Amino acid sequence: MDHTALVVIKKTNNLEFDDKTKAMREYAVQNGVPIIKDEGLAFLKNIIAVKNPKTILEVGTAIGYSALEMAKVRGAHVYTIERDPKMYEEATKNVNESAYKDNVTIIFKDALEAFDDVKNIKFDMIFIDAAKAQYTKFFELYTPLLNENGIVVCDNMLFHGLVSDNVDTTGMTRGLRGLVVKLGRFHDFLFSNDKFDSTLYDIGDGMSVSILK
Prior knowledge:
Blueprint: E1 6-7, H1 19-31, H2 38-51, E2 55-59, H3 65-74, E3 77-82, H4 85-96, E4 104-108, H5 115-118, E5 123-128, H6 135-142, E6 146-154, H7 174-191, E7 196-201, E8 207-212
Helix pairs in contact: 2-3
């Protein structure tokens, strides 16, 4: 992995949460649901504020937290994909209770099988935050749907600091080691992809931003 593209930026947090959002955050903590870190969310929302995407595809809904937060920034329509029945049910409830329910469409399907559900939509932005071992497949599958100068944001790119050139994987479980290796290969794929200009930011759990050339 080539980390010469890693950019360290000041971790700022200007987020404000209403009661519904606070309840979602509490649910995530109590039920062990991984949601985007505050610094990463603030960074993501700043990107949306600047780029003003009209359509966003999210791979990995979980409880609908990041989908709703993205929709709030500039009123984009977020299409979000989730395969877990429990997460889909919780996300559907949260979206239906939100003032932004008309801005979010949840697709209940495995992300690798959902292309036909969105193939006729052009997206200004894609946010990938699902199974880390499948990032390359997600990227290759959905980026053909990007509009000109569209962007792709990927979360968990540093995966708790485990994805780097000098991390010793010998003490890891086989499953964790395999995940770290695959995510590292995605780094290589991303930064050697000549169709995109990509930058890795050391914020939250590591976030990459790729702009279609």
